[in-house]
Amino acid sequence: MAMHSNQNYSLKSSNSFNIKASCSRIYFPSSLAELQQLPDLSAGNTSDKFYILGEGSNTLFVESQAPIIIQPKFNGISILEQDDRFVVTVGAAENWHDLVCFCLEQGIYGLENLALIPGSVGAAPVQNIGAYGVEFADFCQEIQWYEFASKTLQSLTKQACRFAYRDSIFKQERYNKGLITQVTFNFPKAWQANLSYAGLDILAKDSTAKQVMAQVIALRSSKLPDPKELPNAGSFFKNPIVNDADFAQLQQKYPKIPHYPQKNGEIKLAAGWLIDQAGLKGFRHGAVGVHQQQALVLVNYGSDLGADIISLAKYIQRKVAAKFSVSLIPEVRMITHKGERSFSSLSDSNPIEDINSIRGNRDD
Ligand SMILES: Cc1cc2nc3c(=O)[nH]c(=O)nc-3n(C[C@H](O)[C@H](O)[C@H](O)COP(=O)(O)OP(=O)(O)OC[C@H]3O[C@@H](n4cnc5c(N)ncnc54)[C@H](O)[C@@H]3O)c2cc1C
């Protein structure tokens, strides 16, 4: 059977920023045979003219024209119960939060701290999604991967995926070389609530997984805007990581700076705090802005243009760099008509003027 595909497809409802963009063609492969029908994507130039789309909750369409889109439609969940564990295999197109709920309903625990993260199961390994002290990698056993060049399915062990903070092999060596069709999780039956993270530490030590999930949902709902009501893509920037010497200087100047020492000796900073301290929490420019409650989230009040978000993000980046000499790097993926591009390579067609410095000049 021929694979389902569409031409001149609107992506407005397929990205959580609600940006108006469309693609000349979108493919919806749902089996190996259909994947093998995709046009040759391994050849030189074409490799940067397509984009693999899940639910678009970590995606910014920068221009009104998007490249060719592949949206995998692999569905289904299967559970294998062993003496000491559950092995759960899930199609890439399943919704992440629905999976978390489903597992808890089945008495399979572990994902409760990751409740309410938008998006598909297939995208979760890509940036190794994480929240409230838990990350995807903690329960990953294996990834099923379709390689464009050989047109075959392969199994990648957790180790082969090289998971790190918001990173994996899918953003590195395997970037654009194939796509994830299925994820296999390993949930040990010996479960213990992970309550280490601020906000969860108020729960009793013997809390059930459902109680943890309820608290995570309450915390997230109080801080993060629901993209259906106020379009956004969650944390726009990654938390920057600085070396010891740079951190010492920062801490001297800003003794209250939140910081999280990493295993390798580097220090992770809170991007939201830096943006807040730069005076930008709640900042609004035209139809886009910085969220009132959470400065790390950029929100779209009604713009059709990805370029408006880019201008805002570049403005934030400039302000934070000027104040802290720290460079903020977006977590969100930037998609032009030619495919993904780095944030630094994108031009700012309509830069936001610095109101403070204009005022400052006038006062002088
Ligand atoms: C309100 C809100 C809160 C959020 N909170 C968090 C959070 O707490 N923690 C966190 O980590 N993230 C968070 N995010 C970001 C987002 O939920 C995750 O990045 C999620 O994994 C994106 O899923 P998606 O299907 O929408 O991905 P998309 O945006 O469609 O794609 C994201 C990336 O994955 C790739 N991709 C998608 N599917 C596949 C596939 N099958 N095979 C290979 N590559 C694929 C895409 O090419 C792209 O590079 C939040 C987002 C929002 C809107």
SSE layout and pairings?
Layout (H helix, E strand, L loop, with lengths): L3 E7 L11 E7 L3 H4 L14 E3 L6 E3 L3 E2 L1 E3 L6 E5 L3 E7 L4 H10 L24 E2 L2 E2 L4 E8 L4 E6 L20 E11 L20 H15 L8 E4 L5 E2 L1 H10 L5 E3 L5 E3 L1 H7 L6 E2 L2 E3 L6 E4 L5 H19 L8 E4 L2 E3 L13 H9 L1
Parallel strand pairs: 2-5, 2-6, 3-6, 4-21
Antiparallel strand pairs: 1-2, 7-8, 8-13, 9-10, 11-12, 11-13, 14-20, 15-17, 16-17, 18-19, 19-20, 21-22
The structure holds flavin-adenine dinucleotide.
Tell me about this structure.
The structure is a single chain. The chain has about 375 residues and is α+β, with helices and mostly antiparallel strands. The protein folds into three domains: about 5-70, Uridine Diphospho-n-acetylenolpyruvylglucosamine Reductase, domain 2 (2-Layer Sandwich), CATH 3.30.43; about 75-220, Uridine Diphospho-n-acetylenolpyruvylglucosamine Reductase, domain 3 (2-Layer Sandwich); about 230-364, UDP-N-acetylenolpyruvoylglucosamine reductase, C-terminal domain (Uridine Diphospho-n-acetylenolpyruvylglucosamine Reductase, domain 1). Helices cover about 20% and strands about 25% of the residues. It has seven helices and 22 strands. The protein has helices at about 30-35, 95-105, 210-225, 245-255, 270-275, 305-325, 355-364; strands at about 5-10, 20-30, 50, 60, 65, 70, 75-80, 85-90, 130, 135, 140-145, 150-155, 180-190, 230-235, 240, 260, 265-270, 285, 290, 295-300, 335, 340. The strands form six sheets. Strands 1, 2, 3, 5 and 6 form a five-stranded mixed β-sheet that branches. A five-stranded antiparallel β-sheet has the order 7-8-13-11-12, with no helix packed on it. It is globular, with a radius of gyration of 21 Å. The model is unreliable at about 360-364 (pLDDT under 50). Bound molecules: flavin-adenine dinucleotide.
